[in-house]
Design a protein that fits this description.
The protein has ten helices and 16 strands. By secondary structure, the chain is of the alpha/beta class. It has two domains: 178 residues, Medium-chain alcohol dehydrogenases, catalytic domain (Quinone Oxidoreductase, Chain A, domain 1), CATH 3.90.180; 124 residues, NAD(P)-binding Rossmann-like Domain (Rossmann fold). Helix 4 links the parallel strand 10 and strand 11. The chain starts with a strand and ends with a strand. InterPro entries: ADH-like_C, ADH-like_N, ER, GroES-like_sf, NAD(P)-bd_dom_sf, QOR-like, Quin_OxRdtase/zeta-crystal_CS.
């Protein structure tokens, strides 16, 4: 019998249930998968809590790795037995097996293991579009990364350093500062102990940075604007502390003709050709060891509720995977 995590109402981690499910055969444009590892991401808590509304009852999870077990009509870029991974598609990655659209799936190279793939697809593809598309990081840039010791943060720090940037990162503890510095972060700011905007201005000689990458949201948004140089870009790509409240656009003019964007992976990776290009670049930097994926927590898939508790309490660092037995 196949099992999966489902929830019938929104709320805290306690709403997650481990239940038996049926896996239907694939229809046109679909495949069936046997999962080997599932990624844990902050967006999962948004779906569970209702911050991002979903139709209930619902599955959960947007990222996993596994093996193709069956193909539906019209699927020509995959074969039964292929190792694959994905980030996107309908919710439901928290499952031992599933049937889903083939469009988000990419083949895994031999150099990338299943757990690494499950841990990095959403975060790694996010890092790719943030650094290589939303704002193209160049040698000599100084950038600010919030939550630098988190899953996306560690990838951003390593990749940006490889691209020739100086990386400033905010973290919540001395231990996380050490972790971030070990992964390419040049300057760490303990945001609980000092105002990060003042420290960023100090580190940049008063000029500010051209871009801020912010997955924290409400608690850091306004001070992040104060870190930007004129015509700088505020990239708000997450809401770990809550949704950013409405902003007076006149403030952006007053602070130096600033730009603000709220990007999503699902927009950047909507086209097959671009998804393949993004995945190829990600697999290349991971396969060559330029970007190392730190899997610092593993939970059994059935223990997803505890994984959510630890993630929301900021007891995790790096990436987390839910292991399928």
């Amino acid at each position: 019998m196949t099992h999966a995590i489902r929830f019938e109402q929104t709320g805290g981690p306690e709403v997650l249930q481990w239940v038996a499910v049926d896996v239907p055969p694939p229809g046109p444009g679909e495949v069936s998968l046997r999962h080997t590892a599932v990624g844990l991401n902050y967006i999962d808590t948004y779906h569970r809590s209702g911050l991002y509304p979903v139709e209930l009852p619902s599955g959960l999870g947007v990222e996993a790795a596994g093996v193709v077990t069956a193909l539906g009509p019209g699927v020509d870029h995959l074969a039964v037995g292929d190792r694959v991974a994905y980030a996107g598609g309908p919710l439901g990655a928290y499952a031992e097996a599933r049937t889903m659209p083939a469009a988000p799936l990419v083949k895994l190279p031999d150099a990338v293991g299943d757990e690494v793939a499950a841990a990095m697809m959403l975060q790694g593809l996010t890092a790719q579009y943030l650094l290589r598309q939303t704002y193209v990081v160049k040698p000599g840039d100084t950038i600010l990364v919030h939550a630098a010791a988190g899953g996306v943060g560690l990838l951003l720090c390593q990749w940006a350093k490889h691209l020739g940037a100086t990386v400033i990162g905010t973290v919540g503890s001395a231990e996380k500062a050490t972790l971030a510095r070990a992964h390419g972060c040049d300057h760490t700011i303990l945001y609980r102990e000092e105002p990060f905007a003042e420290r960023v201005r100090e580190l940049t000689g008063g000029q500010g940075v051209p871009v801020v990458y912010d997955a924290v949201g409400k608690d850091t948004f306004m001070d992040s604007l104060a870190c930007l140089r004129p015509m700088g870009l505020m990239v708000s790509f997450g809401n770990a502390s809550g949704a950013v409240p409405p902003v007076d656009l006149g403030l952006l003019a007053k602070m130096g003709s600033l730009f603000v964007t709220r990007p999503t992976l699902f927009t950047y990776a909507a086209e097959r050709e671009r998804l393949d290009q993004m995945a190829a670049e990600l697999f290349d930097v991971v396969g060559r060891g330029i970007v190392k994926v730190e899997i610092n927590q593993r939970y059994a898939l059935a223990e997803a509720a505890q994984a959510h508790r630890d993630l929301e309490a900021r007891r995790t660092t790096g990436s987390t995977v839910l292991v399928v037995a």
